[in-house]
Structure formats: C-alpha cells, structure tokens
Write a structure and sequence with these properties.
heterotrimer, A mainly alpha (311), B alpha+beta (370), C mainly alpha (336), B: 370 residues, alpha+beta, 2 domains, six-stranded mixed beta sheet, six-stranded antiparallel beta sheet, 11 helices, C: 336 residues, 17 helices, 64% helix, 0% strand
C-alpha cells in the first residue's frame, strides 16, 4: 500500500491535428518593429533637438563660432574673455541673488497652501482650484505688473503713499530693491502646487486618524505625516526650481530690461546681449558656464539630500 | 480547443525586486495539459505561476523551450494569434467602454460581422444567467467587483477560446461572492469542456477547480498530479506542507533499530517500516488526521495550547508544540477540557523526509478504498 | 485630516478652520485681481488710466483703447508692420503646430516606455527621454538656433561637400513657422506626465486587449486613448500655454516680423511705450513718436491692458472649454 515513487510519469502528448490554428498565420511574438514605430519619432526629436545641441554647445564654446567663414578652434579663449568681463561676474551675482532670494521667499508657499487646501471639503477644493487655475499668460502679467509698479500712478505706489503713508518709492528703478520687487509678485500671487496636491491625495486617511488618536497637534501632523510623504516630490520640485530660477529671463527682461545699471541683468539676459552683438562663441561659452554652475548646484544639493536617487 | 504542452520552458526577467534579487520567471518547466482538462497552478506569491500563464497566453516570450497547442509550435506566436481567453485578478475591463463593448472588442479587431457579434453576445448572456444582459448596458466603473468579474468571464468565453486562462480570478472578491463565482466558473468550465489553466495561491481553490494541480515554487513545478497524489504522495517536503489545512506537522526524529526517537519519547516502529527507513536522523510528517489519540503503548504528550473548533465542519483541531515544531491534531468536537493529549503517529498515514533537504523518504500513497 | 473630525466646535479649532479659509480665499482673490484691474483699466480713458489715486471703476467707461489698438499697424508701421490679427494668427499657427506634432510624438513614446519596452533597454531609454529636463534649456538656445539655419549642421553657412563647391543639402527652417514647431516635437515634461498616467493603467488591461487580438497600435487607439482624455487635456493645456506665451525662442528664430508671434509684437508695442529702464532709449523714443497720433486720441496704459487681455484670451478660452477634463486630469478629490 505504501508507495515510494510519488510522481506519476507525464502523459504522452496527444497527437491531434492542428485544429487550434487561429486566424493569423504564425508571426513572431516579439513586436519589436511596432515598439520602434511608437518611440522612433520621439527618439529622433529628442536626439536632434535635445542632446545634439547640448554637445554642439560645448563644441561651439571652444570655437570662434563666426556668423560666416571658417570655424576655428580657440580653446578656452572665450571663457578667459568672459572671466575677465566684470559684467559677467555681475550678472552671476544678480542671478544668484535672484534665484536664492526667489526660492527662499516663494518655494515653501505652494507646499503650505496645498496642505491647507486639502483640508477643505472636496466641493470647495474644486471651486478654489478652478479659480486658481484661471490662467494669466506671462506677457499679460508682465504688462499688469509694469502698470502696478509705475512710480507715478501705479497701485503699489498708491498703497505705499496714500494707504500706508510712506514716502514715494522707486520700485524697479532702485538698484538695491529691484530684485526683491521682481520676486514680490511671486509671493503675492500665492497658490497651491498641483503636484503637491496629487501627492497629498495619496496619503491614506488612516494615517491622520492614527495621529489623531495619539493626540498629535495640527502642526505636528503636517511635520510628521504630510511633509515626509511629500518629500520626494518636494525634493524634485526644488531641483527644478534651482534649474529654472538660475535661468530667469523673460520676466525680468520684460519688466526692467536688466536695469537700473544692470542691477537686474541675469546671466541669460547678458548672454542675450552678447548674442545680439554677434559674439556666438562668447554667448555659448557663457551658457555652458551657467550650465556648469547649475549642475554643481544640483549635485551639491543631491549630495546633501540623498534620499531619492531616482528624482 | 487544444491541449497545451510546455517543453522545457525558461524565462528570466531583467527587472529586480525591491531587495535586489531578479524577479522569478520560469526555470525549465515542462507540463502537458490534455485537451479539455482543467489544471490548477498553485504556489506562494512570486513562484512564477503568473509567468507560466503569460507564456501560455503569448504575453511573455520564453527565453528557451517551446509552447505547443496540440502539436503546433506557437512559441513565437503573439497573444493576438493564439485565440486564448483570459480572466484577470483585477478584472482588466476596458474602462472607457460599456459592458457590452468590452465583449465586442474581440469582434472589432478581427473584423467579424455585426451579426456574429450580436449572436455570440446573446448566447453568452444566456449562458451567464439571469440579469446578465443588464450588466452589459452599464458603464464598467459602475459595476461591483463581482459584476465586473462576470463581465470579464463573459468577455473570455464570447470568443470560444482554445484555452481558458484564469489568473486568480476570484481573489479580489469578498468571501461570499468568491464562493458563488467559484461555483459559476466551475460550471462554465464543465459546460464548455475547454482546456483550462487556473492560477491561484489558495490550495483549496486549486483543488476545487482543477482535475489536476501543479504546485510551483521559485519558477519550477514541484509536482503535478491529482489532489490525492499531492496529498498522499507529495514529491517533497514543500508540497507536503503546502497542501492541507491545518498544515502537516513536521518533527525532527532519529531512527534507532526498531524505534523512532521523537520529542523525548521512543516509539516502536513496525518491522517493515523500520526496514525501509534509513538509520539516523530524519523528519517525520503527520497530518492532523494522522495522529492516534490515546494509543495503547508508547505515546507522546502534547501540551494543548488551544483547541480550534470548526463547528460548520463538525471538527476540532488541538494545537500545541512538540520539540519546537507546531503540531495540529484532529480531535472530536466534544473533546473535554484538558491540559495535554496523549498521541502517537499512525504509521500507515505517516510521511518521512530526509533530515537535510526536502526529499521524501516514504509517503503513504492514496488510501486503498477497498 | 489636520483638523480633528470630532470636536470641531471647540473655539480654537473653529478659529483655525476659519483662519485657513480666509487665507485660502485671499489667495484666490489675489489671483483674480489682475483680471479685474486689467479689464477695468482697459475701458478707462487715457487720463484716468494714469490717474492718481487710481479708480476702482471708470467714471466714464469707454472702448476707445480697444478700438485704437487695432490701428497701431496703420498709424505706426515702424512698430507693427502687420495688422494685429496677423500676429494673433501667427501665434495660433505655431501653437497648434506644436500641439499637433509634439502631443502624438510624446505620448506614443511615453506609452511605449510605460507599457511596451521592458528589459534592460527600458531604463536607459527613459533617462534619454527625460535627461534633458535636468539641463538648463538656455545652453541649447544658440546651437538650436544654428541648427534651424542649416540642419543638421550647427553652422550659419552649410559646409561644402569636400572636393566640390556644392554646399551640403540642408534643412533650413530658420525664419519660418517650422523653426518654432519642429524643435518642440518632443517634450520631456509632457513625457513624464504621460508616463505617469500610463503607468497607472494596469498591465492586465493591455494584456486583455492583446488576448482579444488587438494590435499594439489598435490597443493604443481603441482602449488606451479613450481612457486617457484627462492627461491629454492637461498636457495639451500646458503645451498651449507654453507655446502661446513663448517669447525668447521665437524672438531668436523669427526675424521676419510678418510671421512673428503675438508675444513678440506686444513686446514691440510695450517697448514703444516703455517707461521702465531701457537699453536703447533712442529706439523707444522714435517708436513712441510714431505712436503719437494714437496717444493723442487717447491710447495709453489702457491700450496695453487690451493687449494683455488679448494675449490671455485664447488660453482662457481653452481653460473654460477643457476645465472638466483638466480637473479630472489632475485628479483632485480631497484626502482619501
């Protein structure tokens, strides 16, 4: 009765005719050409207008990059010339102040507003988000803020002198304050960050309920639940904020054109001035310098914040 | 319809799991499923059972080996050409379509006629039973889990598939619905007589669904056979402990001449059994019903930790520890309250495994019913 | 849930709750104020638009600025060589061109990256697609500009084929609409948005459709597209806003003012009115004098506000049309 060989031999495969053959004839299971059809256009565009210009930039910065005529390799001459140019140093100083102050004063706001907004009942969130989403295009808001900042009849001047009783001030034409006033609209027009809201949504309600049972306070819940859960997205946003604000161009250019006396002329604005002079090599070299500086900043940041290698 | 044969199929994944090990695929798997047979594939999560299903469906290309439907080599055929029907754990209904449009996608892409589609959908609706045509009119995100899976099953059978492939179709449903859907699927499988591969992690479900059961672990098939084979003649310790609830108790023991030393006691062995077993350390496996209560002669004393009474099945299990291993013993439902049980293994129903590794030394085999 | 669910009647909790409400509504109102002020200013007469103190509502509403703005090109050819609607049209052509090219290209790649490409190639390809996000766009400005001149050579003049005097045939898109459209053919930012969405579609749905017999492209078109409307709404909206507002790139690659976008045209007008610091005061003075007849008729900041509103209008219209999908696309429902 006891059996020591437990496994039965596998049955012999049946030899039926191939009635199973479905409609299509045999074709390879690997749909490789179809996959390429999906990605090839994007690969071409991304290569030729994404990566290739990157490489070209580094190459051009080492040449005279003339408008016409022979391209000659000039080594680091362009860089040397830029380093000797006091306006370059000044534009970097402006950029650092602009980016640093801008991130310091505005980066945290959308995070806090997103956290607070999620406290509202869903219907109210919808209404508020809809109103917050109403778009004001960049150029339109530039015109608006130029109007606001007008020293004779701007509304901010009105508020400063008539409402607050302060002496009239030169907003954008004050060398010391111009950068602050360029950042100020970003503080005033606060709103919730979209990505923060979506990441907040993924926090299970039970986390907060557990914290409530533990007796955690309002701020403590933000500190121990909301912020840690948002950490990857905050970290990523900060990197993009650094990259973006170091390249500030359109808003200051339209608001002040770099004035007064270059006090708001960022690196990109100065690069554009050089470009307008036809100095392609110098302009590219300046952009590569800026790129290197940004990369160093990003790497330093990544070294300091090591928790999300995939950001 | 088709019989399915896997011939030395291997599949490796390049992705890694969270802890850095490669995702299990299939490791030299051979399997033959006869035409019209229902086979369950059971194993712990990550054992490769879903990969097996995907290889049969044509959703994954094996690195080596062949897949045959009847005798046709379909290894390099894409899923689109194999004509299988598949039911998924998460239902996988097309969310932007109504119930009925979920069924008709098959006919759309195959450029079948409208009449054929309508006829087939009506046939299937009749087969699926009362109220099913109402589900077909609804948007899929308004359906409950059970309703979704009914539509999912209908989508699978509407095409008259060569093979039914079911990937844990009922594990996302709640207990009561799971029971009902299980019976419904079984009824459909029987009604169609279509070759079926049913993947599950639940051994009871596997037993219920499959004529035969394949037990998988780490990309390999550990054993393939009917329930009685797996239960009474497990190929190794893994299969033995996987099949059966509560699980088999496995105790370290030492064979000395005519006795088995076990948990501090010395039990005499029948002479034929003693002759069969190697001397020295081994492991004894006993299922809950394989213990003799209050045996005459030498016995073990099992301190009772608790008694689990399953009134619906008129059974009770006493649980305790012997030599550091958990032991479950089938006892009468009206077992009087007591601190310990005197038990001894019924040698006719005992399993023996090597002390190291998992090899089975001796298994009882299916009981002789005559 | 930062506020406790039970015990909201306590005065501290109530106060906090209303405090948060006030803060949020303040933000919403501050966001809407520019729209109101621009609208109001645009219907003020010139003197009132520059009056101190400013008025909240014009004493005598007038549409003079709305009328005069359209005459800039007639009166001051040196500022605008074409009628205003022409720049509007240019912007629309570029915007829709970019959307028509980049949304399909980007979404197909994101879908493939999310659902079709598995194995060792997937990760490098992903990095290839999003790696440029980490790089400051400004570096590629000059090379890209040169590429539009003589693609694929980043040179102002195409090189000659060695041994001959014939120049290499090159693709010259500089100073055409294509110079704005083609370089924007792939968007790494949209790629991430698309991929995030496609990743959230269970593989089993795609597998079910494969088993049903759909080809990869058919599955994308018939199964995936219908369920992806929200993410398309969001990416198209971002692309629309981005291209419509783009200023620097068109300024670089479009020289012919007849095909310049509205942003560049508006910049020329605001320069002509410029009150802020300017690098070339002489030019601005000249342009301003060209505008003199209009200024005498009552054009001032009210006209600039009209321009700002015109610039904002299409994005606003798009927002109104697509708002339902946009809200779905960002999937804001409150905490779970």
């Amino acid at each position: 009765m006891a059996v020591t060989a437990p496994v039965a031999p596998p049955p012999v495969p049946t030899a039926e005719p191939a009635a199973a053959a479905p409609t299509a004839a045999a074709q390879p299971a690997v749909r490789r050409w179809q996959v390429w059809a999906f990605v090839l256009p994007a690969i071409l565009f991304q290569f030729f207008w994404g990566w290739y210009p990157m490489l070209v930039a580094i190459f051009l910065s080492l040449t005279n990059a003339p408008i016409r005529g022979q391209v000659t390799f000039v080594g680091f001459n362009n860089y040397a010339r830029l380093l000797a140019d006091p306006l370059v140093a000044m534009s970097f100083r402006v950029t650092f102040v602009y980016a640093g102050l801008g991130i310091l004063l505005t980066f945290g706001i959308p995070i806090l507003i997103a956290i607070l907004l999620m406290e509202m009942p869903p219907r109210l969130i919808r209404v508020m988000m809809l109103l917050w989403f109403v778009p004001l295009s960049g150029i339109a808001s530039t015109i608006f803020w130029q109007y606001m900042y007008n020293e004779q009849f701007g509304i901010l001047q009105f508020i400063a002198t008539e409402v607050l009783g302060l002496p009239p001030r030169a907003f954008l034409s004050n060398e010391r304050w111009v950068i602050f006033w360029l950042i100020f609209p970003g503080i005033l027009m606060f709103g919730p960050g979209l990505y923060y809201m979506t990441s907040l949504q993924s926090i299970p309600r039970s986390y907060f309920e557990a914290a409530e049972i533990e007796g955690a306070s309002f701020w403590r819940k933000i500190w121990t639940i909301s912020l840690p859960r948002m950490r990857p997205i905050i970290s990523m946003s900060l990197i993009f904020a650094i990259i973006g604000s170091m390249q500030e161009f359109a808003f200051p250019d339209l608001m002040t054109r770099g004035g007064p006396n270059g006090a708001s002329r960022t690196v990109v604005m100065y690069m554009f001035d050089i470009l307008n002079d036809g100095r392609y090599g110098d302009a590219t070299a300046l952009s590569v310098m800026l790129f290197a500086v940004i990369m160093v900043l990003v790497l330093v940041y990544r070294r300091l914040v090591t928790d999300d290698p995939d950001a | 319809m088709a019989g399915v044969t896997l011939d030395h199929v291997s599949k490796r994944y390049h992705t890694l799991t969270a802890d850095g090990r490669p995702v299990t695929g299939l490791d030299d798997v051979s399997l033959h499923i006869a035409d019209g047979e229902a086979v369950s594939v059971v194993g712990p999560s990550g054992c490769g059972k879903s990969t097996l299903l995907k290889v049969i469906a044509g959703l994954e290309m094996p690195d080596a080996g062949r897949v045959l439907f009847n005798d046709v080599d379909v290894t390099r055929w894409p899923a689109q050409a194999r004509g299988v029907g598949m039911v998924f754990q998460d239902y996988a209904l097309y969310p932007a379509r109504e119930g009925e449009d979920n069924l008709s996608y098959y006919f759309e892409v195959r450029k079948r006629t409208e009449e054929e589609k309508v006829r087939r959908v009506r046939e299937v609706a009749t087969l699926m039973g009362i109220g099913f045509d109402l589900l077909l009119e609804r948007q899929v995100d308004t359906l409950s889990g059970g309703e979704k899976q009914r539509v999912g099953i209908a989508r699978c059978i509407v095409r008259d598939p060569n093979v039914f492939l079911m990937d844990e179709p009922i594990s996302n449903l709640d207990a009561k619905l799971r029971e009902r859907t299980r019976i419904e699927i079984k009824r459909l499988i029987k009604a169609f007589g279509i070759t079926t591969v049913y993947v599950t992690h639940d051994q009871q479900e596997a037993v219920f669904m499959g004529d035969r059961i394949a037990v998988m672990r780490a990309g390999r098939i550990e054993q393939f056979g009917a329930f009685d084979d797996l239960y009474f003649s497990p190929a190794n310790l893994f299969v033995a402990t996987l099949i059966g609830t509560p699980p088999m108790s496995v105790l370290p023991a030492v064979r000395r001449a005519e006795t088995l030393e076990l948990a501090g006691a010395s039990l005499p062995l029948p002479p034929d059994l003693a002759a069969e077993l190697p001397a020295g350390p081994l492991r004894l496996g006993v299922r809950p019903e394989g213990w003799l209560l209050d045996p005459p002669g030498a016995a073990l004393t099992l301190p009772i930790r608790h008694v689990e009474r399953i009134y619906t099945e008129r059974a009770a299990y006493a649980a305790g520890d012997l030599a550091g291993s958990p032991v479950h013993v089938l006892v009468p439902l009206d077992l009087p309250a007591q601190a310990a049980l005197r038990i001894a293994p019924d040698w006719e129903r005992s399993f023996f495994f090597a002390a190291e590794g998992e090899a089975a030394l001796r298994v009882p085999g299916p009981p002789d019913l005559f | 849930m930062l506020f406790p669910t039970v015990g909201r009647k306590q005065w501290q909790v109530r106060l906090g709750w209303y405090g948060v409400q006030v803060l949020l509504w303040t933000g919403v109102i501050l966001h809407l104020i520019p729209f109101y002020l621009m609208l109001v200013t645009s219907i003020k007469p010139a003197s009132e638009a520059m009056a101190m103190p400013p008025t909240l509502w014009p004493k005598e509403p007038t549409f003079v600025a709305w009328r005069l703005v359209w005459q800039i090109s007639d009166v001051a050819q040196s500022v605008l060589s074409q009628p205003l609607y022409r720049y509007f049209l240019n912007s629309l052509i570029m915007t829709f061109g970019v959307i028509a090219l980049s949304i399909p290209v980007t979404s197909l790649a994101a879908y493939a990256s999310s659902k079709l490409i598995k194995g060792p190639l997937a990760r490098p390809l992903f990095i290839f697609f999003i790696g440029t996000l980490m790089m400051p766009g400004i570096v590629t400005l000059i090379p890209s500009f040169l590429l539009t001149r003589n693609f694929p050579f980043p040179l102002p003049v195409a090189p000659t084929i060695p041994g001959t005097d014939i120049a290499f045939p090159t693709l010259r898109i500089w100073n055409t609409y294509w110079a704005v459209i083609i370089p924007a053919g792939f968007s790494a930012g949209n790629f991430l948005l698309f991929k995030g969405f496609f990743d959230s579609i269970p593989d089993s749905i795609i597998n079910a459709a494969r088993v049903d017999g759909g080809s990869e492209f058919n599955i994308f078109r018939r199964i995936v597209l219908p369920m992806s409307k929200p993410v398309y709404a969001v990416t198209i909206y971002f692309t629309f806003g981005g291209v419509w507002d783009s200023y620097l790139w068109p300024l670089v690659v479009i020289q012919d003012s007849a095909i310049a976008p509205l942003t560049v045209a508006i910049r020329r007008i605001t320069d002509a009115f410029s009150y802020a610091g300017t690098t070339s005061p002489m030019t601005a003075m000249g342009a301003a004098s060209a505008l003199q007849p209009l200024i005498e008729q009552g054009l001032s900041w009210n006209g600039l506000m009209v321009l700002g509103l015109l610039q904002a209008l299409p994005v606003f219209i798009f927002f109104i049309i697509a708002r339902e999908y946009l809200m779905q696309g960002v999937r804001i429902q409150g905490l779970k």
